[in-house]
UniProtKB/TrEMBL annotation:
Its main location: cytoplasm. This is Shikimate kinase. GO terms for molecular function: ATP binding; magnesium ion binding; shikimate kinase activity. It is found in: Cytoplasm. ATP binds at residues 30-35, 136. The gene is aroK. One of its GO terms (biological process) is amino acid biosynthetic process. It comes from Sneathiella chungangensis. GO terms for cellular component: cytosol. InterPro entries: P-loop_NTPase (IPR027417), Shikimate/glucono_kinase (IPR031322), Shikimate_kinase/TSH1 (IPR000623), Shikimate_kinase_CS (IPR023000). It is an enzyme of class 2 (transferase).
Length: 200
């Protein structure tokens, strides 16, 4: 009997307290990370942070200008540093750039310090949203839809490593926010033995 109680106590102690961690939205451009993130933060009474906006403020350049002047590698390194800094702040909702979660170090840091949510969307939804704004550096190609399809093929298997997956369709963002809140309420994840969080 005592052995069983001890095992149960140990399992309970291994559950990560996600109520104190930043909520990190990941996903492809056009998935709705910023707009949904703002609504989610408002609903939860939390601050909202946007990694791209933080980079723009720090560099005094738009993301497109940063890409053009310094290149993608420099942008990703700056992005990694910004996200690392933000993850040390009190709990908030953080919208990341589409490529942020592809960085292995950034992904590991988010796993240790945040709760990641992949906003998954279909190609047609992503394309429609992205074409509303012509400021996506990676889409300045002759066939942006084909570029998006290629990015989805490369990135979706990695995004799938996020703690929670929520489908972001073409409907009102409030529906997605409600789904996220319900998933957060239900979500618990055991801590891995090395101190990082594991899958549910």
């Amino acid at each position: 009997m005592k052995k069983t109680e001890s095992a149960e106590a140990g399992a309970a102690a291994a559950v990560v307290d996600f109520e104190s961690r930043p909520i990190v939205l990941v996903g492809l451009m056009g998935a709705g990370k910023s707009s949904i993130g703002r609504r989610l933060a408002s609903q939860l009474g939390l601050p909202f942070r946007d990694a791209d906006a933080e980079i723009e403020a720090a560099s005094n350049l738009t993301v497109a200008e940063f890409f053009e002047i310094h290149g993608e590698a420099a942008f990703r390194e700056g992005e990694r540093k910004v996200i690392a800094r933000l993850l040390n702040e009190p709990r908030h909702v953080l919208a990341t750039g589409g490529g942020a979660f592809m960085n292995k170090k950034t992904r590991a840091l988010i796993s240790r310090k945040g709760c990641s949510i992949w906003l998954r969307a279909e190609l047609d939804v992503i394309y429609k949203r992205c074409m509303k704004r012509n400021n996506r550096p990676l889409l300045k190609t002759g066939n942006p839809k084909a570029t998006l399809k290629k990015l989805m093929e490369e990135r979706y298997p990695v995004y799938a490593e996020a703690d929670i997956t929520i489908d972001s369709g073409d409907g009102p963002h409030e529906i997605v926010v409600d789904k996220i809140i319900a998933a957060l309420d239900a979500f618990k994840k055991p801590a891995a033995t090395n101190g990082t969080a594991g899958k549910p």
